[in-house]
Amino acid sequence: MTRRITISLPDDVAAYVERTQGNTSGFIAGILRRKMRADSLREQWAQLGYVVSDEDIERTRARLAALPPISDEQHARNLEWLRQFDDEGTAAA
Sign of torsion, CA 13 55 50 60? Predict the structure, then answer.
């Protein structure tokens, strides 16, 4: 079941979605599902005593951003590996 809602996006964001995805609703739904899964994981970790703060996430993102880029081939292998954890069978690119 789906429900129609209307959202407003900044022009540059809307242009990006239209240029790269075509299906704006599907793109937004995919992003929100990833956020829902991440929130669920954080809740599960907290129940086990592992609290992941926004600062922890930002610190990790900064460390990852400082690493040298990986090849397209390695990126493809990483995505293939991640697919085993994705409910829908498709990892985000």
Answer: positive
Q: Which residue has the tokens 């022009």?
A: 11
Task: Give the tokens for residue 37.
Answer: 């899964």
- Measured from the Cβ of residue 12, the count of other Cβ atoms closer than 10 Å reads 8
- Per-residue pLDDT tens digits for 12-61: 988 888 888 778 888 889 899 999 999 999 999 999 999 999 999 999 99
CA atoms within 13 A on the CB side of 37: 12
Q: Which residue has the tokens 């085993």?
A: 84
pTM of the predicted model, to two decimals? 0.58
The percent helix, strand, coil of the chain (3-state, each to 5) is 65, 0, 35
User: Over the stretch 5-25, which tens digit does the pLDDT of each residue have?
Assistant: 998 999 998 888 888 877 888
